[in-house]
Each structure stands twice: as structure tokens, then as C-alpha cells.
Amino acid sequence: MPSAPYQEINPPQRILLGPGPSNVHPRVQQAMMAPVLGHMDPYFYTVMEDTMSLLRYLFRTKNALTFPISATGSAGMEAGLCNFLEPGDVAVIANNGFFADRMINIASRCGAEIIRLDAEWGRIIEPEAIEAALKSQKKVKLLALVHAETSTGVLQPLTEAAQLAKQHEALFLVDAVTSLGGHEVAVDDWSIDICYSCSQKCIGCPPGLSPITVNQKAMETLKKRSHSVSSYYLDLSLLSKYWIRDGSRAYHHTAPASMFYALHEALVLIADEGLEARIQRHAEHGAALQAGLEAMGLVLHAQPGHRLSTLTTVCIPEGIDDARIRQRLLSDYSMEIGGGLGTLKGKVWRIGLMGYSSSEQNVLLVLSALEKLLADEGYKTETGAGIKAAVQSLRK
Amino acid sequence: MPSAPYQEINPPQRILLGPGPSNVHPRVQQAMMAPVLGHMDPYFYTVMEDTMSLLRYLFRTKNALTFPISATGSAGMEAGLCNFLEPGDVAVIANNGFFADRMINIASRCGAEIIRLDAEWGRIIEPEAIEAALKSQKKVKLLALVHAETSTGVLQPLTEAAQLAKQHEALFLVDAVTSLGGHEVAVDDWSIDICYSCSQKCIGCPPGLSPITVNQKAMETLKKRSHSVSSYYLDLSLLSKYWIRDGSRAYHHTAPASMFYALHEALVLIADEGLEARIQRHAEHGAALQAGLEAMGLVLHAQPGHRLSTLTTVCIPEGIDDARIRQRLLSDYSMEIGGGLGTLKGKVWRIGLMGYSSSEQNVLLVLSALEKLLADEGYKTETGAGIKAAVQSLRK
User: Fold this and answer.
1) A254 vs B2: CB contact, 8 Å cut-off?
2) Interface of A with B in 340-359 (CB under 8 A)
3) Is the ipTM of this complex over 0.95?
4) In this model, does residue B246 exceed pLDDT 90?
5) Which of A12, A310, A395, B121 is buried most, with the most CB atoms less than 10 Å from its CB?
């Protein structure tokens, strides 16, 4: 017998303003109480069909293969890369953040040769750099960009990149982990061939799933592979036989039913709110937070004009203890914000306003809490300045 | 806007007697209502530590690296293989069922050369065959067997195989997807180096996680790889930096908090029941079901003496419509049983009695339902014979 007395799970109720997970709407949480069904149950197929249809709305696509991968966002990234890259392929990949770096890591595990698009962390990749890379002597198979870089808070423009990829006959892969459901992601209009996200950020579902959409052009490429896909679990040809209704549903893996229910409910909430209104909500709260932080004399890390509304990076002022502030946010406010990742560790905080967490009350509370805790550390700012600027921004 | 009116999820309450998922105890379902936490939250770490400790109890191991992979059982299989096999390695793998076949598929995606241990579906792999394969001219790196073959209902003996693997310095990998929590799986006593399972069968949690345990010997092998592991998501070296407490917890992916809560609660229920009592419960109900089916004149598919108590394969009588019976079980009894997989499609039914679903009432109900529906199809059997034999078996 295990020696410890194991108690019921009783986690604190946190205000989740980190890089994700975000808070979950009670209706989404409640959906997980629905009875588990087998993955071949006729009713379960209707849940799958609905989910695909709702995801197409969210991704703004007509792609048949639009479904959640049964694992978290990093697995979506892996699925997006390992199905389309095989040994010897050339990929052009952004190199301006922690998740761009992860894409490079995964692509190199696929045996691909990688041309890196370098930019400082906190800046976008310029179209000129993309064009130069695509024009290199080598035939480029895939261009991969991170739409919303969770480590830097940068929103990467995509339309020119998409045109360049098309022109050079490369597949265009976009990581929309921190944008889908909070920023516009128009897969078809923007000519994105492969796009994935996660469940636990702007979609507002618990972590565990990774929505992905793949167009016909990309699926054709998949058929021409000379090696099998390294991963069985993420093999899109096999997954499509389970997900695409064509008379038969070939068993691939046991679908995580409770997570699917939660995702379905989160997507219904998005449809109820309306995608445009939801994006507007994220924009307003993000702008208010950023106005407030700047009014407190803090410096935003991401390139002006290319800032995410879903996740804000703010530089930690000289002499302020990163860990102590985040620890006190947790203990005094039960509020989570993110620390810096990779080269930004100890240099920035990451404040997420995503999904159900993107609310006026959270903007006001995080500014108020930061003002209080920074003042305790000796950082000087006018009392209430941050909150005031945020409210002014909200009333605009 | 999506055109369909999307309704709340309202799945029927099924009696899940298929190959998994099994029914979920109300306490396990309730655990998913706990608030989602960030994957770096101090409280969340305590949930992780408890879960690892409870899993060690279940796997009967002291292995430090004992944790749930954040994806379903098939991903556990992939993790078990892709971390230890690289191009050019030789693996000896069972070839006597659908999931053995899946292991071969995944191992070949890793670039391994495979020596197949052939046996008829429904029969075990004999130790002599294992010894012959390990004695082949080639240096074998890994021996892989399925403990409980979900497609055939066979329980593979493991102790001799483990000794042979040790003798030939091969790693011993065991798939315990349909046994862990229902049959004895003694990882340390049986000298298993790598063992994985799933959450949704005998553990009684919803699908979505794959518990795995890996000993030090296997982890040493991992360090000596010459190629990086093909999968980032399933890379055990990276995952161990998140899971093993050593001062730092390196972020790898966003842990599916709600699923972890459910698994934790399911494991607490197992500890409360006691592993021995739980295995005994599965044994008694499995035996009663099998006695009942045989008393109805039905033929069990799996080799006598090597039958699972968690999943029973029974041959579909001549002239009986497989799909219609299963359809009527669903519509008249809201009960799911499994059809045959692969070469057994249309030839057997698979009746699971796993976790919370392994109960006297389910044994009686499935026998009663099958008797009624088979009689409607013209199959002749003495009324009540199945139930009577089951009860006699239970009272033994």
C-alpha cells in the first residue's frame, strides 16, 4: 500500500493570467461531467462532427481535415511538422522565440535541413528575410512561422509570407497556439496550408487537445512521402480515416471523450459570443493592460505595432525580484502570471488575457496587484496611474 | 457563424463493456471539476508527486520515472518504443494480435529491424520461440510483448521472457494496456524494463493519459543513443526533467490538469480498494462471465489457461449477425461490447469487465442480454443457463 495518506484533490482557485492554461468557463467544466462514451459510439460521432464544424468556423476554413489532436499543443506542432518533413527536406523556419526554436528542434528530429529566419526575440520576421530564404538555391518544402509567439508577445504578420510561400511552391505552416480564438486566424483567406493551436488558451478549454487544420494541397504532399511518418500517433493519414466520415471509421486510438466534450462546449461558447466580438474583446483588454503597464512606467518588450492582445510581455524593472513578485501574486492574490522563457528568463513577465480570463476585472486586478507589489519592492509609480490609463483605454 | 444549432452535449449513459473506455466512478468524474492550475503551480507539483507515487504502487515498482504520458495508450506504446529504438537496432516483437502488430508498425517507423514472434491470434508466444529469436546471430536490443492482448483476450506469461531478455542483455518492454489495475503487473519482481498502460481500462479513468514506468537500465540506454529521439513530445529525457523533482522543473508541455485530477482520483480509489482485492474482483467477474458464456454453448476464442479476466473474446456463432447484435445491445440495453479487430473482425465479440465496469451486475446483465438477443436471432440455448453458471462461479 502507498504510505502517504492520499487526499482528495483540492486545488486553489487561481486567476490564470499566465501563458496558458487560462480559466475555464463553468459550462466548459460542467461538460466534462457528461458520461464517457466509446470512441466508436454513434452519438460520439455526432460530437466529433459538430466539433469539426465548429473548429472550421474558428479557423475560418473549409478544410475537411479540421479536428483536435488527442494531446497538447506541442503534439500539434509535432503533427504539423513530422507529417510534412522527411529526411533531406528543406524547411525555412522562424528563429525569434522559444516556440520558433521548438519548431526547429522538431523539424531537425524529422531529418530536415533548416534555414533559420533570424530575428531578435521580441521582433517579427520581416518579409524580405522570408523571401531571401525561399530564394536560396535549395528547393524549400515548407515555411513555418509562429503567429503569436508565447515567449515574446509578438504577433507575426502572415499575408505576405503566405504569398511568398505560394510563389515558391512551399507549404505554409502556422503555429496559432496563442492566437486562435483571440486574434483573427483566417486559414483560407490567408492561404495557410497547415495550422494548429491548443485548447487551453484563447479557446478556454482545459489543456489536453490540439486543434489542427490541413488543406488538400498539404494532404497531397503527404501522399507523396517516400518514408513513413515517424509518428504513428500523429500520422494524419491514419487519423483522417477515423475523423473523416466516409462510411467507415477506422479505429486509430481511444479518443479522450471528456476532453472532447469540454472542447465542444468551449467552441459553442465561441460561436455564441461570435468570433468577431470575441477578437474585439481580446483586443480591448489587451490594449487596456498595455496602456496601464506603460502608465506605470513599465516597458513593453514586444515590437510596437506587432503586439499580441492575448499575451503581453513586460520588462522586469531593474532591481526587482522576479520570483518574489510572482510568488506574492500567487500567495496574496492567487493569481498566476508567467515568467520569461529561454533568453528572456528573469527579464520579462508574461501576462495572458485569454479566453474566459480576458475580462475587465482581470485587467484591473492585475494592474492593481502589480502596483502594490512593485511599490513594496521600492519601485516608484503614481498610485492608481495604471488602473486609470487602463480604464481610459477601455472607454475609448 | 456555424449554420447548425449546436446543442449541449447530452450523451446517453452507456454500460461500457467493450475493450475500453470502461465506466468511470462518480468520484473520478467529479475530480475533473477541480479548478485548472498552471503546469508550474506549486500545488500542481504535489498532484504530480502523489500521482507518481500511486502509479509506482500500481506498477509495483520503485522506478523514479513513473508518470502519465499526456496522451492516450497508443502514445505510451510509441514512447516505449521510439525512445529505445533507433535506425539499425534489432527488436524482437510479438506478432499474435492487433496491438502486437501496432508495436511492429511503430518499431519499423523507428527504423528498427524486427524479428517477429509469430503465433496464431488467440495463443500466447511460447518461451522457446522467444529464446530462439534472442539467440539469432544479431544483437537484440529490445524484446517487446503484449501482456494482455486487447484483440484476442490472451494473457501472455512474462517471467520466463524477462529472464531470457536479461540473459541476452536485451531491454524488456511490456504493453500492460489491458492488464494494469486488473491483473497483476509486477514490474520490479518480473524484471520489466519499460512498461506502459492507459487510463481508461482497468484504472477506471476517462481516456487521455498513458501511465509509463522506465527503469534506470533503460534510461542509461537512452543516454547512449546516437540519433535524437524522433518525437519531441514523447522524449523521455525531456519529460523526466519536468517530472523528476530535483530543484528545477523544466517546462516541456502544458500538462492536461483535469485529466491528471481524474487519474489521481482513480488511483486513490485503487489504493483504497487494495490492489490484491481489485485483481481478485477482476478475476472473479471474468471467470463468471466466461463460465456463463460457455454454459450458453458459446466458444471462447482465447487459449485455455491464458485467458484475460479483464477482456473476454467469444466466437460469434454461425449465422448470427455481428453488427445487429451489437446494435441491439446499444439500443435496447445502452450497452457497448466490442467487435473483432483485424483478422478477428466479424468472428468474435470482445466483452470487457474493467475497473468500475467489473461488477456482478454487469456480468449478469450482459449474459441475460446476450441470451435474449441471440434467441431472437434463432440461436438455441437453455433459458437462464448462462446466468446460472455465472452465479455458480461467483459463489465458488
Assistant:
1) no
2) 341
3) yes
4) no
5) A310
